[in-house]
Design goal:
Radius of gyration: 26 Å
Number of strands: 28
Helix content: under 10%
Mean pLDDT: 86
Shape: elongated
Oligomer: single chain
Structural class: mainly beta
Largest sheet: 11 strands, mixed
Low-confidence stretches: 1-5, 278-288
Strand content: 35-45%
Length: 350
């Protein structure tokens, strides 16, 4: 039985099973290093067949359907190709619903066999293969932040985390999603609505994470082309404060989202993982200030994602957009551009 709470760990070893839904071919070996887009396994699903009611579509007697055909047994077709047509005053056409070939004709019907499509499974997270399951897939190990949620719409993705709201009780609104959200995983606080999902799709986001989702919206969310994760589940519960703060601390980092809840026979917990590259240390400790010349990357703020070197330690505090004032350093980004950044918004590059 699933736990009733979200699991949030800022730094842990994460093992991600990447398994095919049916037997196939594993393309990597134990010990291999992989990136999120690396294809680790593939399989060809069994043939898919579709019956097309020619007589019904053309509104002709079954005995007359054969004379209306534009294809024959063995003909290859593409989705939208004309399979049969009726002329006259009330002309009609019947088109193919898929790519494939005609494998059967009879009783006013066509039997189509869909073109086989290779299913490729990517790694989803950067890491190392620690286990290979012949014909099934692999287990990938990485280290980083980990949040286990209670509900997901079934999709997966990898992108940059972007905090959109300031408090865990604030909902994600469509007006907050603009062109700058393209390719990012948006983090809201409480919930979202249908207009928000539509706007996120138009802006081509990589995913959405909120506290909970309303029951009435679930059919819409399952149709979204990107993962939607609800850390608290279905209902109207805002995101747990601890989870929200952890996500805030990881703003600007690359993250993997798996909103796959499995099946009734094999239940899975959806999750969000933020891998920490082996060449990058954790966020800087305030008790151990960076030294001048250290290479750093900026995690938040106007210069988010840029890297440079520490130019000097600041005696004065750095003021954030929220009004908070924190200790920090001055970072040289190149071309003599200097920015003041608090320690908590930096990570050290080795």
């Amino acid at each position: 039985m699933l736990n009733s709470y979200s699991i949030a760990n800022p730094l842990t070893t994460i093992r991600v099973p990447r398994l095919l839904s049916r037997p196939g071919e594993v393309l990597v070996r134990s010990g291999d290093a992989v990136e999120p887009t690396h294809i680790v396994a593939q399989a060809t699903p069994p043939p898919d067949f579709r019956i097309v009611e020619i007589a019904q579509a053309l509104d002709v007697p079954i005995k007359n359907a054969l004379s209306c055909l534009k294809v024959e047994r063995g003909t290859s077709v593409r989705e939208g190709d004309v399979l049969a047509a009726r002329g006259g005053l009330s002309s009609r056409v019947c088109r193919s619903p898929l790519d494939g070939r005609v494998v059967g004709i009879g009783r006013g019907r066509l039997l189509l066999e869909a073109e086989p499509r290779l299913v490729r499974l990517n790694a989803l997270v950067p890491g190392h293969v620690v286990e290979v399951r012949d014909g099934q897939g692999v287990v990938i190990e990485t280290v980083g932040g980990f949040i286990q949620a209670r509900w997901g719409n079934g999709s997966e993705s990898y992108g940059i985390l972007r905090m959109v709201v300031r408090e865990s009780g604030y909902p994600l609104l469509a007006t907050q999603i603009n062109a700058s959200a393209q390719g990012t995983i948006l983090v809201g606080g409480a919930t979202l609505d249908a207009e928000c999902v539509k706007q996120a799709q138009e802006m081509q986001v990589r995913g959405v994470v909120v506290g909970s989702v309303p029951t009435s919206l679930i059919p819409c969310l399952r149709q979204a082309p990107f993962p939607i994760l609800a850390t608290q589940g279905v209902g109207d519960t805002p995101m747990a404060r601890a989870v929200f703060e952890l996500l805030r601390s990881m703003d600007g980092r690359a993250a993997a989202v798996s909103a796959d809840c499995g099946t009734r026979w094999r239940i899975k917990r959806p999750f969000l993982a933020v891998p920490m590259p082996t060449r990058v240390a954790q966020a800087v400790d305030l008790d151990a200030p960076l030294t001048v010349g250290a290479r750093v990357r900026i995690l938040r703020g106007n210069a988010r994602g840029q890297s440079g070197r520490v130019a000097r330690e600041l005696r004065e505090l750095v003021q954030l957009e929220t009004g908070a004032r924190l200790p920090g350093v001055e970072v040289a980004l190149g071309d003599d551009e200097l920015v003041q950044v608090p320690y908590v918004n930096l990570e050290r590059l080795l």
